[in-house]
Amino acid sequence: MPRLAEPKHGEVWNVMLDPVLGHEQAGVRPALVISNDSFNRAFQTLFIIVPFTRTDRGIPSQIRLLPPEGGLSTSSLMMCEQVRSVSIVRFRRRCGEVSEDTLLRVEQVIPRLIKRRTAIG
Questions:
Q1: Which of 13, 26, 31, 69 is surrounded by the most beta carbons within 10 Å?
Q2: Which range marks the domain in which residue 110 is found?
Q3: pTM above 0.85?
Q4: Cβ atoms of 66 and 89 closer than 8 Å
Q5: Does a structural domain hold residue 1?
Q6: pLDDT tens for each residue of the chain, 121 residues long
Q7: Is 49:33 a contact under the CB 8 Å cutoff?
Q8: 86 exposed, middle or buried (CB, 10 Å; 0-12, 13-18, 19+)?
């Protein structure tokens, strides 16, 4: 039996996202592991990721990542609006890891996507 991957916080992996529904990202694509290592150790088979795309649609929640960061060979965008949990069996190959600065940028964008707006006044 093949050994399962051991993704860690801040690593970029090629992940198989099929099958999908609606506007979810599909196919094998790079993704950043954003679940912290305590979560990763506790669950062992479930990880929280941000998938990448090469298509720039001007979406404000997407963060550009330039090669060679993350082990990428092509400029990509991290789709923070597509954050999702995936099984360990979806992980294919480790590409590399991102800088602390990049992780901080992602950690700043995601809460803004789910924060409740409050009225001023």
A1: 31
A2: 11-114
A3: yes
A4: no
A5: no
A6: 456 779 999 999 999 998 767 666 767 999 999 999 999 888 889 999 999 999 999 999 999 999 999 999 999 999 999 999 999 999 999 999 999 999 999 999 999 888 876 444 4
A7: yes
A8: buried
